[in-house]
Amino acid sequence: MNAIVSSGGWPALVLNADYRPLSYYPLSIWSWQDAIKAVFLDRVNIVALYDKAVHSPSIEIKLPSVVSLKTYVRPAKHPAFTRFNVFLRDRFSCQYCGSRQDLTFDHLVPRSLGGQTTWENVVAACSECNLRKGGMTPRQAGMWPAQMPFQPTVNDLHRNGRLFPPNYLHESWLDYLYWDTELDP
Predict the structure, then answer these.
(1) What are the φ/ψ torsions at residue 134 (nearest 5 degrees)?
(2) pLDDT value at 64 more than 90
(3) Strand residues in the chain grouped as ranges (E)
(4) Is the pLDDT of residue 98 over 70?
(5) Is the pLDDT of residue 180 over 80?
(6) Which positions ≥6 away from 77 have C-beta within 8 Å?
(7) DSSP 8-state secondary structure symbol assigned to residue 81
(8) What does R_g of the chain's alpha carbons equal in angstroms?
(9) Residue 105: partners with Cβ closer than 8 Å, 6 or more residues away
C-alpha cells in the first residue's frame, strides 16, 4: 500500500461533471476532509468509496475515493503562461539537449535583443544549455530547440500531463484516467 494511503491521506480524485479529471498534472485530487465537506455541501456526487470510514459520535462516513462535481467547470481554452506550464508543454525536457535536470527558461530571441517573455519565444532549457546559448539567437549559437515554442491549449497540457502519472493511483481512479500502468501490490 502506498505511503499516501497508509499515512492516512486517503485522497479523492476530483472529476468534472463530465467525469473527466479537472487536471492531469498535477492530478486533481482533494484531501479526504475537503471531499467530505463537498459532499455535505452537496457540491459533488460520490462515484467510488474507499473501504476506510471516519467516525463522529453520531455518524460513520465511508471516505470517497472518486467524486464528480455537480456543476460543470468549463476549462480555459488557453492556459496561463507560467513557468510550470512552459515546462509541461516542453515535457520537462531541455529543448536543446533533452536533459531533465535544472530546467530554466530560455528566450529564443534574447530579452537583450528585444525578445519578449511569451509562449512563442520561451522554451525549457537546462542551465548548462541556457548559459552556453547566452544572449545569442539560435542561429548565432547554432542551437535549435527540438520543438519550436507555441501557445499550447489545455488539451496539449493534459496530453503531456498524462505522460507523468503520479506515484499513487488508487484502483478506483483508473477508469477515469488514461495512464497505462500497473498498481502496486
Answers:
(1) 55, -135
(2) yes
(3) 12-15, 29-30, 44-55, 60-69, 103-107, 122-126
(4) yes
(5) no
(6) 153, 154
(7) -
(8) 21
(9) 83, 86, 117, 122, 123, 124, 125, 130
Neighbours of 104 (CB within 10 A): 16
pLDDT in tens, 125-153: 999 999 999 999 999 999 999 999 999 99
Q: φ, ψ for residue 29 (rounded to 5)? A: -130, 150
* Residue 174, C-beta contacts closer than 8 angstroms, at least 6 positions apart: 183
> Within 13 A of 119's CA, how many CA atoms are on the CB side?
11
- In total, the chain counts a number of residues equal to 185
φ and ψ of 130, to 5 deg: -60, -40
Residue linked to cell 488557453: 78
Q: How does DSSP classify residue 22? A: S
Residue with cell 461533471: 17
